[in-house]
Specification:
This protein is about 30% helix and about 20% strand. It has 10 helices and 13 strands. By secondary structure, it is an alpha/beta fold. It has an 8-stranded parallel beta sheet with strand order 4-5-6-7-8-9-10-11. Strands 1-2-3 form a 3-stranded antiparallel beta sheet.
């Protein structure tokens, strides 16, 4: 089986800022698996927060043996971006070989559209209010926060979008004291979820804390091995394929998390429709879906996902799966 990895760049519709920095483009890796008759596709977004780069992930993928199956990947690659792209490409390849969609091969119900969050970039309160007003028609808005001066931003977004459901992503930017101070205001402003308020290495401070707004583990949750350390700290887990290392582990993590009493959020890095396509299967029935990557782009794949009032739709067979 021939493996090819290419670096693709997608311009963003506008500058995208989180507590860690800003970007104007999405840099992704596209994996192509060719068995001589069929081609499987996958995409990943290497993330510096987890020690990944475009080059390091490319090296991991190109270091794979000539012959392997999807079931070999757990032994060949760790959870992360490299395994994600290869795992998803293998699923796509299996579907094309079988002439059946991935959801059927995985024993899932036929997927449908799911309402997705739309993310508002971190900015001044005035700019965030304007963003919120522009997207106030959307039922679910996600706000990037994580600074010492977040309350004016939150107030501004609520003023700009008074009817939208709001979730907050602090990107590890708060301390336990800041979260405790903000919690009553989050309730007052109708925030329904807080994503990763504390740094992953310091989230033990959540033990025993009152959580009037459900708290979601993002950087603290990668795959099933993460679950043991989340007990008593979090109410929700955010499943991202670039963290789990592909669709295979994402589905297993979803089932394990639900069995242990967690709610499930399905999220994404900023990538193209090819990266979101497998995640739409994991997102079926999730409490929160955040697969808005393509909505943040100025350009996308040739056969992009459909986003409409019903939400993000499963991919066409020409895109993936």
């Amino acid at each position: 089986m021939q493996i090819d990895v290419t670096r693709d760049v997608f311009k963003l519709a506008q500058v995208f800022t989180i507590a860690r920095g800003s970007r104007t483009e999405a840099q992704v890796l596209t994996v192509k698996l060719n068995d001589g008759q069929h081609i499987g596709w996958g995409e990943c977004v290497p993330y510096a927060r987890y020690g990944e780069s475009l080059q390091s992930v490319t090296d991991e993928i190109m270091g794979l043996p000539d012959a392997f199956s999807r079931f070999d990947l757990y032994d060949l690659l760790p959870a992360g971006a490299a395994r994600n792209a290869v795992d998803c490409a293998l699923w796509d390849l299996e579907a094309k070989r079988a002439g059946k969609p991935v959801w059927e091969l995985a024993g899932l119900e036929a997927p449908g559209p799911e309402i997705t969050a739309y993310t508002l970039s971190l900015d001044t309160p005035e700019a965030m209010k304007a963003q919120a007003a522009l997207h106030a028609f959307r039922p679910l808005l996600k706000i990037k926060l994580g600074t010492p001066d977040d309350m004016p931003r939150l107030e501004a977004v609520r003023a700009g979008a008074p009817k939208s459901t709001i979730i907050v992503d602090a990107n590890e930017g708060w301390s336990a004291e800041v979260y405790a101070d903000l919690a009553p205001h989050l309730v007052r402003l109708g925030v329904e979820l807080v994503e990763q308020p504390l740094p992953a290495g310091e989230d033990h401070a959540l033990l025993g804390m009152q959580r009037p707004v459900p708290v979601c583990a993002d950087e603290s949750c990668h795959d099933r091995s993460s679950l043991a350390d989340l007990k008593g700290k979090y109410d929700v887990v955010n499943i991202k394929l670039d963290k789990t290392g592909g669709l295979t582990e994402a589905l297993a993590l979803r089932d394990a998390a639900i069995a242990q009493g967690y709610e499930v959020m399905v999220g994404c890095m900023v990538g193209s429709s090819l990266a979101m396509a497998p995640a739409t299967l994991v997102a079926q029935g999730a409490s929160v879906v955040d697969l808005d990557g393509p909505l943040l782009l100025a350009e996308d794949r040739d056969e992009p996902l459909i986003f409409d009032n019903a939400g993000v739709h499963p991919p066409s067979a020409t895109l993936w799966g």
